[in-house]
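Q: What structure does this chain adopt?
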Amino acid sequence: MGDVCMTVPVVTAFALQHPEARFTVLSRSNFRPLYRQTPDNVIFRGVNLADYKGFGGLRRLARELAGEHYDYVVDLHDVLRTKILRTLLKFKGISVSVINKGRLDKWRLTRSCNKQKKQLPTSFQRYAAAIAKALPNTDINTLLHNAQTPQHTDIHTITRIGIAPFAKHEGKIYPLQNMMEVIKTLSERPDTQIMLFGGGKTEVEALRQWEKIFPNTTSCAGKHTLEQEMDMIKQLDVMISMDSANMHIASLLGVPVVSIWGATHRYAGFLGWQQKEEYCAEIDMPCRPCSVFGNKKCKYNDYRCMKLIKPEKVVEIVEKCLRDNAK
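A:
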């Protein structure tokens, strides 16, 4: 979901710059709400992958797409499924371009020895470069610089802080005991409402327990559709998130994010759209980053890169973010 979120501002920028073109985004049907506020020349085509299983299913999907008469296909994912699909479409005479994920540079960034710690092109830049092949003479840097983010204009009398404490992999999850200390401190702020976000049975149950423990705290997990959660996130003053989809959803809605980084690093290019580095909570360690996606086992077996981030530091960054963005 995070990857799809990151495509939205880029596709939107191209659509606004090229009103004569039609852009169709092919993705999972349940991600449709992410594209709910794009220009009229952007069409979201949702698919249920269960309906297109295996090579035979992809051949059928390719036939359907070929019948829609596209001039260009841009693969922004570059995984096995999309590799097969784009190849089938290329055989049907459709021009194709593919994202350059920079896998070698990301390996150099995350390898155990002689890491090359430098900022790599962002996912937004990589998406734009792939799309620009279909629309020549596009100045990518200018396009992204001028791309608009929704203005965060919601006004309310209390401070609303969202917290999304989970991620797919352990290397991207701030220790829950530490996060509970963060929630305890923030929930005691005057005129403050804490809203917890997550999904899946385990996460839902954990957040329900936290709702009972801490004052002024509400769990939104497991109660709403994606579109409804987006409406709630849009009302936040700040979102505290891991390197995960909620960081990107909040960014898409123009909400400031305090992001917490452990095994992964913003240098890999996955920081949320137009988010500030100064709102990243992290510790500079020789072993960081050890993973692009947070799915590698910690060499110390304790993910100390996360554990050593003090709850007080996270709260300090949240308070700074709230001051900086006070209306």
